[in-house]
TrEMBL record:
Keyword Metal-binding applies: no
Residues in OBG-type G domain copies: 65-316
Organism: Musa troglodytarum (fe'i banana)
Keyword Membrane: no
Matching InterPro entries: Beta-grasp_dom_sf, DRG, G_OBG, GTP-bd, GTP-binding_2, GTP1-OBG_CS, P-loop_NTPase, Small_GTP-bd
Keywords, ordered alphabetically: GTP-binding, Nucleotide-binding
Record-given protein name: GTP-binding protein
A UniProt-annotated Pfam family: MMR_HSR1
Domain TGS: residue ranges: 316-392
GO molecular function: GTP binding; GTPase activity
Annotated PROSITE patterns: G_OBG (PS51710), GTP1_OBG (PS00905), TGS (PS51880)
Alphabetized NCBIfam families for the sequence: small_GTP
Amino acid sequence: MATVMQKIKDIEDEMARTQKNKATAHHLGLLKAKLAKLRRELLAPTSKGGGGAGEGFDVTKSGDARVGLVGFPSVGKSTLLNKLTGTFSEVASYEFTTLTCIPGVIVYRGAKIQPIATSSGYVLISSTLDQLLVCSSQILLLDLPGIIEGAKDGKGRGRQVISTARTCNCILIVLDAIKPITHKRLIEKELEGFGIRLNKEPPNLTFRKKDKGGINFTSTVTNTQLDLETVKAICSEYRIHNADISLRYDATADDLIDVIEGSRVYMPCIYAVNKIDQITLEELEILDKLPHYCPVSAHLEWNLDGLLEKIWEYLDLVRIYTKPKGLNPDYEDPVILSSKRRTVEDFCNRIHKDMVKQFKYALVWGSSVKHKPQRVGKEHELEDEDVVQIIKKDFCTNIQDKEHFGLGISRFSSTHWPAKSKCWQQHITTDIAASRYSSVYGTHGGT
Ligand SMILES: Nc1nc2c(ncn2[C@@H]2O[C@H](COP(=O)(O)OP(=O)(O)OP(=O)(O)O)[C@@H](O)[C@H]2O)c(=O)[nH]1
Ligand SMILES: [K+]
Ligand SMILES: [Mg+2]
């Protein structure tokens, strides 16, 4: 019996042989659905053919966000980790130097760093990174082993690498400026094969299964990619014979399969083109214009500031400042939320999982509200740089607790955190939320 991998290869070959036109569209759609199903089988932990789970590396969950370095061997991933975080990961000229996941912490203030113009139009970072130490967003950068083509199908440690990448908030695809541009597409294919969608919004289409009535396919726009026959072919592959499908944009067969399959992750991605010290200025100018590209030289520390800024921009994080009653907001140490999950409830959960149970209301200052301050509930969506004070339900008997809870949150003091000058050199071993909680409740005997 053919193995799953052989079946995948056969389908890929057949797709390559098949001419793309109107007459073959539904057949190609069917093949794509078959392929998606086989890949899922291969990657599922329970599958027989998969030979083990798509388990990632065991990495600490700490940090405000995590960014994964993915690329072919020897493109300079470890050099980048070393320069951006000060964490040591071995660098060498031979391939597969890195064999496991090495995390390092970028401490970023999230404010714009003034770029220093140089003759080539690029930015030179200071050799000490001291200028970044006034900040407090903790971004976990993950150095990963190099992947090779076929990783998604189980070659090398690739599956572990891609599984870990799936848990990230942003991916840095590291490319070597002097290697063929085709490498970019190969890495993308590996990630896509594992259900990771780069710089893409989830498909804006509705898919609703029903009990009878056949396949009903409607579209509010003229669509060039999908016709009823193709939609039916794809659905039949999933044994779906009754469903309403409506498109609000020119969706592809792959988009429809993504919606039916589910479990896709949509992630921002930056292409860090490394080793630009090896190319000409003309080549550099071309690279610099490409969307989502960030040319750097990790070795010579060129444009690392630019890369950090882009990472911050792509992570799309919001900073929320806490304000203890009667005191000024703590601007040094914001709570960092994803712009996709930024309600007052998300804010509470960042501090402690039980905080929301004691939540009465919040006072908010900033661009998300009209009045200063404004009383809001836990569904309220916060904006970048809002100031929040949480008021808890009045249930405490201990007067000290009562005062403490009533006063809103005080943030952890420097005694709970390593000196800022050390921050960026350390792996985070403590969970940030836990350390915040212990400082909020710890001395008052909270549970
Ligand atoms: N010229 C140049 N060489 C670089 C640059 N960055 C890294 N290198 C060199 O590229 C080689 C590979 O660097 P690594 O950081 O080990 O690459 P890697 O991607 O981590 O490699 P693996 O762990 O084996 O996958 C080393 O010899 C580095 O010195 C750069 O910006 N310019
Ligand atoms: K290497
Ligand atoms: Mg390495």
